[in-house]
Amino acid sequence: MVGALLSFCLMAVGARELSGEINTAQVMLFRSTLGLVVISLILWATKQTALIHSPRIGLHCVRNGFHFMGQYGWLVGITLLPLAEVFALEFTVPLWTALIAWLCLGEALTLRKLSAILLGLLGVMVIVKPGMAVFNLSSFIVLGAACCYAISHTSTKSLAVTESPLTILFYMSLVQLPLGLLLTLNHWTTPTLQQGGWLFIIGATALTAHFCMAKAMQHAEVSIVVILDFMRLPAIGMVGAVLYGESLAPSLFIGALIMLIGNLFALWQPKTAVKTLKS
């Protein structure tokens, strides 16, 4: 999850640097192209090309269609809102993810898990101080992206039962590349060397972020993984303050503390439960 945190923050910085210069769909196209090349080379070099064959193509398409929409909305939000606000609004994902995982995967929706999610969302609200100014069109774009991410996360959890993380990443790039190409045809901009560097960073961090998330979901319930993902918010808040002069209000740290309490509560086990597991 630490690898995912660093990757998502770098991806956000890259998207902000390219805002107003490179079309969002073109960013998605470059990301998918780099991903497909890198994953294909890894599969070939490690003699794992058999992983390309999957009996669950339909679920891969569903997962990556929703992920494409979520990523597109997220990138648009990065250009319109402060970084911390984008991440905060995105963190409504755990609520939708836990509910979808409960409905589709049969994961237990315990009182402790619900309490942790609500504490996390409370922390988000403390940070963004929601009012009429926050919930504008830009905010709804990010909230829509969050709903798409929730479906994507739940699909990833299901796929991780039978599929390798490399398989999941391969089909993510394969499915999303033509979608990005279709939306870029009439909006192409030849990138400069500097812009190409940022495009490479976005593509590389997209791979590392989703590889880390896929590996994490193999070892924990999807809702727990996304709850831990809340820690991206204070990190990106400081990045926005240092690089772009975005306000770093005390509420950011108060909200982060509330989220940390929620994380610890979700992971805490009573001593009796630990003894039972050991026995």
Automatic annotation (TrEMBL):
GO terms for cellular component: membrane. The keyword Transcription regulation does not apply. Coiled coil: none annotated. Its main location: membrane. InterPro entries: EamA_dom, EmrE-like. Keywords: Membrane, Transmembrane, Transmembrane helix. It is a multi-pass membrane protein. It is found in: Membrane. It holds the Pfam family EamA. The keyword Flavoprotein does not apply. SUPFAM superfamilies: Multidrug resistance efflux transporter EmrE. The chain crosses the membrane at residues 25-45, 57-80, 111-128, 134-152, 164-185, 224-244, 250-268. This is Membrane protein. It comes from Photobacterium aphoticum. The lineage of its organism: Bacteria, Pseudomonadati, Pseudomonadota, Gammaproteobacteria, Vibrionales.
